[in-house]
Design a protein that fits this description.
The structure holds 2 protein chains of 2 kinds. Chain A is of the alpha/beta class. Chain A has 3 domains: 10-151, 2-Layer Sandwich (Aconitase, domain 3), CATH 3.30.499.10; 155-271, Aconitase, Domain 2, CATH 3.40.1060.10; 278-449, 2-Layer Sandwich (Aconitase, domain 3), CATH 3.30.499. Chain A is built from 14 helices and 18 strands. Chain A has a 5-stranded parallel β-sheet with strand order 4-3-2-5-6. In chain A, strands 16-15-14-17-18 form a 5-stranded parallel β-sheet, covered by helices on one side. A 4-stranded parallel β-sheet of chain A has the order 10-9-8-11. In chain A, helix 11 links the parallel strand 14 and strand 15. Chain B is α/β, with parallel strands linked by helices. Chain B has one domain: Aconitase, domain 4, CATH 3.20.19.10. Chain B contains 8 helices and 7 strands. Chain B has a 7-stranded mixed β-sheet. In chain B, a hairpin with a 4-residue loop joins strand 5 and strand 6. The chains are: A alpha/beta, B alpha/beta. At the A-B interface, helix 1, helix 2, helix 4, helix 9 and helix 10 of A face helix 4, helix 6, helix 7 and helix 8 of B.
Chain lengths: 451, 197
């Protein structure tokens, strides 16, 4: 809206503001203190996902909310939305789900939009060629009140992905390999554009997985240029334009590509054709190896040693010898229909290993309904897994879905930080296929053996 | 949140956490995010590093060292504050009494959140960083207006800080006030834009 100067940051107008129960209460308090309304309720999409129970079958009135403070936060979200005139996708909404799953699903996420949310995985929406990034609660208050944000121009990083992904290797493996290559701070200060054959070949859900984890490389945002896949995905969705507006929008969206002669501050190239399924062995997403590679030896580095001590993993061996206690399929990274389908393809007609607990949590109520309509729920339950209501669930365990301390969890989520999934829980990040294969084997497993 | 305290000068001893990539889940674990006010997070700061599972203090954790009492400056390993966008992380640090974090790199969202709350994120060169890591408890002097960090030997090191953020810190100005002054421009921007909701 106003460009940056030496003295002042740019004033960036926000086209879509996504809000959820955890990072907004203090922002609404700020508005009340200053007697300010929400400027654009019509550009605000509200849901509840982080602390919400995923136990199926409970009636909405007696849902098992994990704690009194979580219940209070949820009721405060409901009240804030009523008081400030925002439509909330509440417990009884068929469109409720993880904020980064439902934004695209309802068609609110569109190319060229500026999108923010008090959640770092807002980078997900960059898969549509939107500029989308996470903000803190004070900035959430700024956007609620003014629909604007103060921002400095980021640097640019092009990641070219050459070749096509082999069978059994998916976009989750690719983004883990990228983070392994550039490091968890490799994108700091930058917005990433992902380009190349492997990206062009990907469907929108796979692209969302890539952009979702941009933040795990420290990047402010990750983007993919819109093209046919993007436009076909959006057509007919409730928030997408229709009629003559649709044609105008498509005309605008098709222009939103980097110029051929565009110069990036940094360029990285990755070869997709030689990738293996990837798994993390440490306590950040950059500590990652191919499924058959040995855990590296970094014992002269105290931070590395601390990570391996926490994980109870020794260098020199591949992770395929490591026993698995819990498998989680879900999160804003990997809970969409194609993710569930890939896991179900591995599980179909098989049983998960004795002693393994497997949780499958769809990203939204719509994903849940679609999965049930093609019988995926029956495959999961038949294999011995739990089939849940939608939510963030075991990605960060805010709703009580947490493994016990010390257990090893193979998870399709995005963060293997110490304690992320619960106190003392050891997380191995992997693709839905690898997670499903690991549930069958009882050890971290190569999904290609089950295809 | 509405009252931003002006911050011009910090003079304090340092406490050191040398680990790299300290993420916001370690600074404030997710299970403490259900609060609806911004106060009182200090008691949960670094909870799972500071306390054992039975609730007793972890003796070898730097912030539990009696020498760390009243230290306002945290020196941390590279890439501090990575991960989640939770502003509860800087709130917890401030509530505990930390006013500045020094590292060689500080994650973007954490840095922005810190600046909006009067927690000073300071990025220094490797050499200065190494010296600070190896000499915990030294007294440092931070001048926000001059953007300098002065070490005990009198050596002064410049650190980068966005000019607008520095101005807001020194004057105690909150950025919402600045945005509210733009309402006229925002109105005309919304009238002219190429799409309507």
């Amino acid at each position: 809206m106003a460009p940056e100067t030496q003295e002042t940051p740019a004033v960036l107008y926000i086209d879509l503001h996504l809000i959820h129960e955890v990072t907004t209460p203090q922002a609404f308090t700020l508005l009340r203190e200053r007697d300010l309304p929400v400027r654009r309720p019509d550009q605000t999409l509200a849901t509840m996902d982080h602390s919400t129970p995923t136990i199926p079958g409970a009636s909405f009135k007696d849902l098992a909310i994990v704690s009194e403070s979580a219940a209070n936060q949820i009721s405060q979200m409901q009240r804030n939305c009523v008081d400030f005139g925002i439509d909330l996708l509440d417990f009884d909404s068929v469109d409720r789900g993880i904020v980064h799953v439902i934004g695209p699903e309802v068609g609110a996420t569109q190319p060229g939009k500026t999108i923010v949310c008090g959640d770092s995985h807002t980078s997900t929406h960059g898969a549509f060629g939107a500029l989308a990034f996470g903000i803190g609660t004070t900035a959430v208050g700024h956007v609620l009140a003014t629909q604007c944000l103060l921002q400095r121009r980021p640097k640019t990083l092009a990641i070219n992905i050459e070749g096509r992904l082999p069978v059994g290797v998916c976009s989750k493996d690719l983004i883990l390999a990228i983070i392994g290559q550039i490091g968890v701070n490799g994108g700091t200060g930058h917005v990433i554009e992902y380009r190349g054959d492997a990206i062009s070949a990907m469907d929108m859900e796979a692209r969302m997985t890539i952009c979702n984890m941009s933040i795990e490389a420290g990047a402010r945002a990750g983007m993919i240029a819109p093209e046919d896949h993007t436009i076909n995905y959006l057509q007919g969705r409730p928030w997408a334009p229709s009629g003559a507006d649709w044609d105008l929008a498509v005309g605008r969206w098709r222009k939103l590509t980097s110029d051929d002669e565009a110069v990036f501050d940094k360029t990285v190239t990755i070869d997709a054709a030689n990738l293996q399924p990837m798994v993390t062995f440490g306590t950040n997403p950059g500590m990652v190896i191919g499924i058959n590679d040995p855990v590296p030896d970094g014992s002269d580095d105290p931070s590395f040693r601390k990570a391996l001590d926490y994980m109870q993993i020794s260098p020199g061996q591949p992770l395929t010898e490591t026993s698995v206690d819990v498998v989680f399929i879900g999160s804003c990274t990997n809970s969409r229909l194609s993710d569930l389908q890939q896991a179900a393809d591995i599980l179909e007609g098989r049983q998960i290993a004795k002693g393994v607990r497997m949780l499958v949590v769809p990203g939204s109520q719509q994903v849940k309904k679609q999965a049930e309509s093609i019988g995926l729920d029956k495959i999961f339950v038949g294999a011995g897994a739990e089939w849940r209501e939608s939510g963030c669930s075991m990605c960060l365990g805010m709703n009580g879905d947490t493994p016990d301390s010390g257990l090893l969890s193979v998870s399709t989520s995005n963060r293997n930080f110490e304690g992320r999934q619960g106190v003392g829980v050891r997380t191995v990040l992997a693709s839905p296929m690898t997670a499903a294969a690991s549930a069958l084997s009882g050890k971290v497993a190569d999904p290609r053996e089950y295809i | 949140m509405s009252d931003v305290q002006a911050i011009k000068h910090i003079k304090s001893r340092t406490v050191v956490m040398a680990t790299r990539d300290i993420d916001t889940d370690q600074i404030l674990p997710a299970r403490f995010l259900t609060a609806t006010s911004r106060d009182g997070f200090g008691k949960h700061l670094f909870h799972d590093l500071r306390f054992r599972e039975d609730g007793s203090a972890q003796a070898n954790f730097p912030l539990n060292d009696p020498a760390a009492v009243d230290c306002q400056v945290l020196v941390a390993g590279n890439n501090f504050g990575c991960g989640s966008s939770r502003e509860h992380a800087p709130w917890a640090l401030l509530d505990f009494g930390i006013k500045a974090v020094i590292s060689t790199e500080i994650a973007d969202i954490f840095r922005n959140n810190s600046l909006k709350n009067g927690l000073l994120p300071i990025v220094v060169d490797d050499e200065t960083h190494q010296w600070l890591l190896q000499n915990p408890g030294v007294s440092v002097d931070i001048d926000v207006a001059a953007s300098t960090l002065t070490l005990p030997n009198g050596q002064s090191v410049d650190f980068p800080i966005d000019e607008f953020a520095r101005y807001c810190l020194i004057e105690g100005i909150d950025q919402l006030g600045y945005l509210q002054q733009q309402f006229g421009k925002i109105d005309s921007f919304e009238e002219k834009r190429s799409w309507t909701p």
